[in-house]
Amino acid sequence: MKKVMIIGAVGAGKSTLIKALFGESQPASKTQSLIYRDWVIDTPGEYSENPLYYRSLMATSHEAAAVLLVQDATRGRNYFPPGFEQGFAVPALGAVTKIDHPQADIDHAIELLRQALPEGEIFLTSAASNEGITQLKDRLMQIVRS
């Protein structure tokens, strides 16, 4: 089965988002290495924060049908370089996490994500309330089944 590789900074909510996509409620733990699970590849946040790991992300993307760039709505800075999605040979989508957090700035998060993902779909999500999770999962499943 094809997979979707999930990329984002440390603490951006990647593992929590994955648990929500699988309908699990237990707390997520820190991802220490690439984790292959069903139709998802979970990547450590350090891989997107350190350019030394970009090559590993690019190579791993060849095993994926798409990449999902994750931006935390509570963060004021971008952890992806401009045009980051262009380094992948597969389509890229975006997800903004923690949209219902009191410090969330959704518009700013979208703006930051657009620097790395100038085009492509962006989904607004909250693992806490499950907002946007079904829509994101439906779209990702459509990609992995195509």
TrEMBL record:
Does the entry feature the keyword Nucleotide-binding, yes or no?
Answer: yes
Nucleotide-binding as a keyword? Answer: yes
Sorted alphabetically, the keyword list is: ATP-binding, Nucleotide-binding
Protein family per UniProt: Belongs to the EutP/PduV family.
Instruction: Enumerate the Gene Ontology biological process terms.
Output: biogenic amine metabolic process
Instruction: State the protein's name.
Output: ATP-binding cassette domain-containing protein
Judging by the UniProt lineage, the source's domain of life is: Bacteria
In the record, what terms sit under GO molecular function?
Answer: ATP binding
